[in-house]
Write a structure and sequence with these properties.
This protein is of the alpha/beta class. The protein has one domain: Rossmann fold (3-Layer(aba) Sandwich). It contains seven helices and seven strands; from the N terminus they run E-H-E-H-E-H-E-H-E-H-E-H-H-E. It has helices spanning 19-30, 42-54, 69-83, 106-131, 157-177, 204-214, 223-234; strands at residues 10-14, 34-39, 58-63, 88-91, 138-143, 182-189, 245-248. It starts with 9 loop residues before the first strand and ends in a 6-residue tail after the last strand.
Length: 254
C-alpha cells in the first residue's frame, strides 16, 4: 500500500536534474508532494518534471545557481507562488573536484566552496526565513557526504572540506532555528550509483568490482536508499530528530 506522508506539501529539491536529486524528487512526488526541482540545466530539470508527471505527480522546474543569493531567493518565491508554502527543502546541489590539494587551482577551490558550502548557506537562509513565518514551520535536509567529517580519501580534500563544513553548518543551524519550527538535518552518502562515484575512466562494472573490496557491504548505495533516508528525515515521524547527520555508506566510514 502506497503511503502519502507528504500529501499536498510543497517541496524544493536543488540539484534535481539527475542522480540523487532526481530520485529524491520522484520519491517525494510519489508520496503526494508538489515538487519544485532546481538546477543549472533546464533540459535535465524538464526530464525530471516529465518523469514525475508520468506517474501522476506534480512538479515544476526552475533554473537556478545556488551560489547566487538572488537565485535562491527566487527559488523560494517560485515554490510559494505555485504551491502556497515551502514545507520541505532538500539542498542536494553539489560538485566534485578531485586532486591533491597543492595541485588544485584557486578557481576550482572557489567553485567547490561556492556551490557545495556557500550554496547551502544561501539556500538555508532563504528557506528558513520563509519556513519560520509559516504556522507549520518546515523541514530541511542537506545532502552532505561521508567524506569530510566521517572519513578521508586521498585526492578529495577540497570536496571533503566543504562537506565537513556542511555537516557543521547543519548542526549549528538546527540549534539556531528548531525553536522557530524549522527542523534541519543532513544525510551523508558514500559511494552511490551515480557518475560521481566513478573513478576517471572507470566503468560501472569496474566500480562494482572495486566496491567489493572497498565497502563492507560490498556495493554502492542506490539513489533510492538515499532518497528513503531523506524522506524519513523530512517526515513527521522524525519530529524529534534535530541536527543529525545520517551516514549511508555501507560501513565504509566505520
Amino acid at each position: 500500500m502506497t503511503t502519502h506522508r507528504f500529501a499536498d506539501r510543497a517541496v524544493l529539491v536543488t540539484g534535481g536534474g539527475s542522480g540523487i536529486g532526481r530520485t529524491i524528487a520522484l520519491a517525494f512526488a510519489a508520496e503526494g508532494a508538489r515538487v519544485v526541482v532546481a538546477g543549472r540545466g533546464r533540459a535535465a530539470l524538464e526530464e525530471t518534471v516529465a518523469l514525475v508527471r508520468e506517474t501522476g505527480g506534480t512538479a515544476v522546474a526552475q533554473v537556478a545557481d545556488v551560489a547566487r543569493a538572488e537565485d535562491v531567493a527566487a527559488l523560494v518565491d517560485t515554490v510559494v507562488k505555485h504551491f502556497g508554502s515551502l514545507d520541505v527543502a532538500v539542498n542536494n546541489a553539489g560538485v566534485f573536484q578531485g586532486g591533491p590539494l597543492a595541485d588544485l587551482a584557486e578557481a576550482d577551490w572557489r567553485r567547490t566552496v561556492d556551490i557545495n558550502l556557500t550554496g547551502v548557506f544561501l539556500a538555508m537562509t532563504a528557506q528558513i526565513r520563509r519556513m519560520r513565518s509559516q504556522p507549520g514551520g518546515g523541514a530541511i535536509v542537506n545532502v552532505s557526504s561521508n567524506l569530510g567529517r566521517h572519513r578521508q580519501i586521498p585526492g578529495t580534500t577540497a570536496y571533503s572540506a566543504t562537506k565537513a563544513a556542511v555537516t557543521s553548518l547543519t548542526r549549528g543551524a538546527a540549534l539556531d532555528h528548531i525553536a522557530e519550527g524549522v527542523r534541519i538535518n543532513a544525510v551523508s552518502p558514500g559511494a552511490t550509483a551515480t557518475t560521481m562515484s566513478l573513478n576517471p575512466g572507470e566503468t560501472e562494472a569496474g566500480r562494482e568490482t572495486r566496491m567489493k573490496r572497498e565497502s563492507p557491504v560490498g556495493r554502492v548505495s542506490t539513489t533510492e536508499e538515499v532518497a528513503a533516508a531523506v524522506l524519513y528525515l523530512a517526515s513527521d515521524a522524525a519530529g524529534s530528530v534535530v541536527g543529525t547527520d545520517l551516514v549511508l555508506d555501507g560501513g565504509a566510514s566505520l
